[in-house]
Amino acid sequence: MRITHEPFGEWDGQLVTAYTMVNDHGMSVTSLDYGCIITSVLTPDKNGKIENIVLGFDTIEEYREHSPYFGAVVGRVAGRIKNAEFELDQKTYQLAANDNSNHLHGGVQGFDKVIWKTEMVKHEDWVRLEFTYLSKDGEEGYPGNLQTKVTYTLTNENELQIAYRGESDKRTLLNVTNHSYFNLSGNVKRDILGHQLTLKSSSFVELGDDLIPTGQILPVENTPFDFQSGRKIKDGATSEHSQNILVGNGYDHPFLLTENNRNEIILVDDESGRMLTVETVQPAVVLYTANQLGDHFSMRGVQSRNYLGLCLETQGVPDSIHHPHFPPSILEKGELYQSTTKYKFSVV
What we know:
By secondary structure, the protein is mainly β. It has a single domain, classed as Beta-galactosidase, Chain A, domain 5 (Distorted Sandwich), CATH 2.70.98. 5% of the residues lie in helices and 44% in strands. Strand 1 and strand 2 (14-22) form a beta hairpin. The longest helix is centred in the first third of the chain and has 7 residues, at 60-66.
């Protein structure tokens, strides 16, 4: 088990550093102190060939100019908040409106666009990166000085564990996730339409025309949103279901999980044999199939296009502050926010 680090670039006068964790089997995870971005995850396929299975760039300038949150930690609140405002304790807070009139993924200068203080921790059976950041009272419109910690731990079982902690001196909102785009084909050889996804979820959240939850929770049965027995991602891309069409022919929806920490999310690419199993304490996962990725940039020699990756954003339900029947994302003053998600990489 080892950790190495090297300069990745410079932004706004600050050095950006890349940290690479490597286990005894040759699996590695490289991440930046800028946005806690996971820029590569190298895992073997069924023939033992080690390749990168996440989308990313090789320069900080590309991340700044083109990245649709590739690999980043997003917050304070992941997803959209309607009209970029919310009310807490009879006070209205106006947030940064960075998605038309709405607030998206923490705002203009969210967790994904700041440099985190980083420490390396080594153990016989695991290595860890500890990222910390103080989000000051009023940042992007949120109340409270929020002390945040994100840890990435790589084990010899080819498991990446991501843990989040937060504590604020005022009542505030907090709902953090990682926004990695997975493509198990390796080095983006194919799109993800042939990937098979299994989700322990019997319901999903309906979206309105602005991609904000309407408040309605819909059953997945007899729809392209039923992943309980596994289905190909292409089913959503070719579907005539109004919710698939709404988000650009695919998925960009929160699914409510029926179980936690019990292999509740499984993604498989038959051709490479790679399998990703995700376990979390969170109530939901947002499945996004890169329906809006577009073709206006390239990444590591590959031209971008829709469906080149998919996100499994384990989190609370977006815009829950406006829907009291959703699991709340309110963090009380002095309360400790804690959340953990595990990503197990294997072959079938």
